[in-house]
Write a structure and sequence with these properties.
This protein is of the alpha+beta class and about 450 residues long. The protein has 9 helices and 14 strands. The strands form 5 sheets. Strands 2, 5, 6 and 9 form a 4-stranded antiparallel beta sheet that branches. A 4-stranded mixed beta sheet has the order 4-14-12-13.
């Protein structure tokens, strides 16, 4: 009995020391290096992700990829290191990242991505970069209230329109956001832990056509006339165009600001839960649901009226003698227990449906319990794939059981078709799409 108690105590100690990857908090000391990772470029319009360094950004001395799980790979993530240098609680103003001269082809690449509304995704301490914006709402008393919202990532650039009030903007011209202001929020609680914890990551993107005095000498530190510590970047400065030129010199700069926050580390993902995901086309979803409900109600009403009319005719004493011949719904009573023509295909579809429903229900169950944390990047996709494989047991049972009822003799071929139907069709579709796109 004493040995059993020691074993249970050892198991309890080992469980309490276990953390999921990316879920355990990290405490930073003052001045400690904070790593900024770059991720994919994505867009709502094209749905095609690109690697960050597929565009000629400033690159570090050596580019290497971070280890990714299966879910991250299937989601198109490509996490790599960057040339940005950030230190805990150390402010940085108008830091020059690099100066690059782009040719016509490179400028066209930037312009094409900007017009397709591509966004940049960065990661600091496993937190994705977010853009903060405000919307104006008028209350019942007629007063204007501004509510803050967050969006994932930040835009690569923008295309000027006629509504823009700045005088240096030309309608229809694409401008590149070459200055980024990183706003990092940290939480400090000396009574609970030592150091600082990052609880927020925002990015403000600006487009500035930088200018400097004298010759460019990176070793001595060139002085920018458009950006200083006392004169930060604003929206009223001349932007950096990438349209209509054969060659353009672009200077990449960034700021780092640190702000204290009362948000605890365990609640730092609440902002991301409330953010609006631009990839979710709510109007299209609601429109599709409304059309399906309307058509279903129409079909149900027609079927109900037809069935009700037939039942009244069958039960009418006046027409009982005339209804000796089977008409209407009585004509199909013999087809109820008759196997369908493509019974094997129906069995495959039913088995696949069991598999997908089981995967969805179990995934939602674990998500509600909190096991699928967003801090574990790619965990949701990986879990869905594993559950899809495990639910193949129920798919095979449901398909072969229904096949036995229909009298399908070759149950081995039925099980094989059930296991490869949905994955095979998905593979063919995505293979053709990738072949056409790339």
């Amino acid at each position: 009995m004493r040995r059993l108690s020691l074993l249970l105590l050892a198991g309890t100690i080992s469980v309490s020391a276990f953390y999921l990857p990316g879920v355990s908090p990290r405490n930073y000391e003052y001045g400690e290096d904070v790593t900024l990772k770059v991720n994919k470029l994505d867009s709502v319009r094209t749905q095609l992700p690109y690697e960050y360094y597929s565009l000629p950004f400033c690159v570090p001395d050596k580019v290497y990829e971070y280890a990714e799980n299966l879910g991250e790979v299937l989601s198109g993530d490509m996490i790599e290191n960057s040339a940005y240098r950030i230190n805990m609680k150390m402010l940085t103003a108008c830091k020059i990242l690099c100066k690059k001269t782009y040719n016509k082809h490179e400028l066209q690449d930037f312009e094409a991505k900007i017009r397709d509304e591509y966004h940049i995704n960065w990661i600091i301490d496993n937190l994705p970069a977010a853009t903060k914006y405000y919307t104006e709402e008028i209350d019942d008393e007629g007063e204007s209230n501004y509510e803050s919202h967050y969006a994932k990532g930040f835009p690569l650039g923008f295309v000027a329109t006629e509504e823009d009030a700045l005088p240096d903007l030309e309608p229809g011209v694409a401008y590149l956001n070459n200055h980024h202001r990183l706003i990092l929020y940290y939480h400090q609680d000396p009574a609970s832990f030592v150091g600082y914890r990052i609880v927020g990551f925002e990015v403000e993107a600006f487009s500035v056509k930088h200018s400097y005095e004298g010759d460019w000498d990176r070793a001595s530190g060139p002085q920018l006339s458009t950006c200083t510590a006392l004169n930060p970047i604003g929206r009223n400065q001349k932007p950096q165009p990438v349209s209509g030129t054969d060659s353009e010199e672009v200077i990449w700069t960034y700021d780092v600001q640190w702000e204290t926050s009362n948000i605890k580390w365990a609640s730092r993902w609440d902002v991301y839960f409330k953010m609006t995901d631009s990839k979710v086309h709510w109007f299209s979803i609601i429109n599709s649901i409304a059309v399906v409900l309307f058509l279903s109600a129409m079909v149900a009403m027609i079927v109900t009226r037809t069935l009700h009319r037939d039942l009244l005719r069958y039960n009418s004493p006046e027409e009982r003698e005339e209804a000796q011949e089977e008409t209407g719904w009585k004509l199909i009573h013999g087809d109820v227990f008759r196997p369908p023509v493509f019974s094997q295909g129906l069995c495959v579809l039913v088995g696949t449906g069991y598999q997908l429903i089981g995967m969805s229900v179990v995934t939602l169950f674990f998500a509600v319990l909190g096991f699928l944390s967003p801090a574990n990047r790619g965990g949701l996709m990986t879990s869905m794939l594993l559950l899809f494989v495990l639910m193949g047991i129920f798919a095979g049972f449901a398909g072969t059981f229904l096949g036995k009822i229909f009298g399908v003799e070759n149950w081995r071929r039925l099980s094989f078709a059930t296991s490869f139907a949905f994955p095979g069709v998905s593979f063919v579709i995505f293979f053709i799409l990738n072949a056409m796109v790339w």
